[in-house]
Amino acid sequence: xxxxxxxxxxxxxxxxxxxxxxxxxxxGQVRLAIESFALTANNITYAVFGEMMKYWDFFPAAEGFGRxxxxxxxxxxxxxxxxxxxxxxxxxxxxxxTHLTVTPKVxxxxxxxxxxxxQHLAAVYNQYMAVGDESPLxxxxxxxxxxxxxxxxxxxxxxxxxxxxxxxxxxxxxxxKTAIALAALLKQRGGVKVVGLTSxxxxxxxxxxxxYDQVVLYGDLPTAPIAGPAxxxxxxxxxAVLAAVHNRFADDLKASILVGGTHWEAPxxxxxxxxxxxxxxxxxxxxxxxxxxxxxxxxxxxxGAAWAPFVxxxxxxxxxEEGQGQxxxxxxxxxxxxxxxAPDVGVVLRP
Length: 351
What we know:
The chain is of the alpha/beta class. Helix content is 29%, strand content 29%. The longest helix has 23 residues, at 138-160.
């Protein structure tokens, strides 16, 4: 039986499993059985910003409900498309469901879903990459690759801007996977001090990564000896943390970049802040810019060169926990909503 795991848009803790009746494929359609996907704080960010950023639009659900997008792997179960064979596997953007029906436009490396309801959405999310049988780093790929590309793009943007003349780049939610990836890239690039903001429970983990030059507790931020001028990259989405950084540095803060919402229930009401106006970072726009700026193939080459050593190192600090079925999915999802997953654990689910 096919089913969708859905959440109430008005209450992210309210979940349901809804059966999906079988229906024949239209001409050109393909049905994939979802094999595995990662569940991280990033997926909760998709739900939090579901309306504003149109994340709910990718996988429509019943009125009032949403299907949370996730990244993972699926295999073709049925095909009514001459270019896609039953049994082929693809990596990409899926709902928390057993199946997804797509309308593929086949390319060199996979396909794009050209279903009409997805055409107004960011193209990067509609791309599905052909892959072989399961590989040893597949779980780490699902957990980290969607986050790493954001980190790669922020690192590139900061480098293009000469880091705005900053001596320090401060990352909130330093234990989050996107922050860890950015810290690794900044550390490798050099030239700026990489400062991580974290909570007491995650301090030892963040320090042990080896990617941060300095780790500061949120409560110590007002007096910690952080070199200025600084740039702030905010993965927490917590207005109190944002205000604390702006008040600490004021005009010595050269850029303030909003990325995620790991502290998604924290207050978001904005008051006037000293220093620069916080600017929201939207990865698909940066991808589009760089694909235009750089010669054909260069984006993928640069990205691949940065990604390969990072994912190879990931098992050192990130262990994978797997769950299967509806109950495991609900428990893992609610744990992410409540921020209960340890930073050194990555959750991979199989419907």
